Amino acid sequence: MKKKLETLEQLQDIDQLINILKNSQKGLNDELSDISQAVHLVREEVAAMEIRLAQLEKEKADLEENHATELANICRSETNMKEIKTNKEFQAVGREISAARKQVADLEEQMLLKISQIEELAGEVAVRKASLGELVENSANRAAEKQAEIDKIQLDIDSDTVRRDILTKEMPAALVKRYTTLRDQRRGQALAIARDGYCLGCNMHLPPQLYNNLFKHEELLACPHCQRMLVLKLQQ
Ligand SMILES: [Zn+2]
């Protein structure tokens, strides 16, 4: 019986170790996804800036088109003027031309504004792209480091799993099943230490007869309160 309990204790130790290793793997995996998320965010930012830049270019092209049209209109009106016979018509066309010239001046002002907006944004895009490049390189290195750690931990998990398999093969299947069920139900702790008449798994007082029976090491005894299998340990 003592041997059985010792094996169960070893099994619990290995399981706790595997659990710790899996948790650190999970932490590293979270860090990995944080790294790629950070890159993703900057990429999206750059993409949004490029869309905005293309929009500004399109607006600039539209202004240029309008500008060219207005200039052509002025040119045509000036040609028409030569054909005009009446003063009234002459004045009307004159007004058209000066309105068109004002429009041209407005458009030129808007074009200049657009150009300066484009230059400013293009500068920002260039800076952001350069830092994205650095971030990508940096992240690739950091991700590779994290992955190496994850792989290293996996080797430990694999070797612990082999040790676990060897142990459980030596044990009666029913005992392994009981251990596994308890472990699932009791947050990874299928065994509990019994000391001074108490179960340290749930801190409840054990019935004296049960506690006394533990000293005989004849059978596997469970705490009546938390159902964990009891391991008698008189000292810490
Ligand atoms: Zn208990």
Could you please describe the fold and organization of this structure?
- The protein has 236 residues and is mainly alpha-helical.
- It has two domains: 157 residues, Helix Hairpins (Orthogonal Bundle), CATH 1.10.287.1490; 56 residues, no CATH class.
- It is 78% helix and 6% strand.
- Helix 1 runs antiparallel to helix 2.
- The longest helix is centred in the middle third of the chain and has 84 residues.
- It is rod-shaped and about 130 Å long.
- The mean pLDDT is 95.
- The chain binds zinc ion.
- The site of zinc ion (ZN) has 9 residues, from loops.
- Zinc ion binds next to loops.
Listing every helix as H and every strand as E from the N terminus to the C terminus, the arrangement reads HHHEEEHE
Structural class: mainly alpha
CATH classification class of the largest domain: Mainly Alpha
Number of helices: 4
**CATH topology description of the largest domain:** Helix Hairpins
- Overall number of strands: 4
As a percent range, the share of helical residues equals over 70%
Ligand kinds: zinc ion
Residue fraction in strands: 5-15%
The CATH architecture classification of the largest domain is: Orthogonal Bundle
The total tally of domains equals: 2
Rg from Cα: 41 Å
List keywords for this structure.
4 helices, 4 strands, Helix Hairpins, single chain, 2 domains, 4-stranded mixed β-sheet, mainly alpha, binds zinc ion, 236 residues
Write the layout of secondary structure elements.
Elements: H1 2-81, H2 87-170, H3 173-185, E1 191-195, E2 198-199, E3 204-205, H4 208-214, E4 229-232
The structure holds zinc ion (ZN).
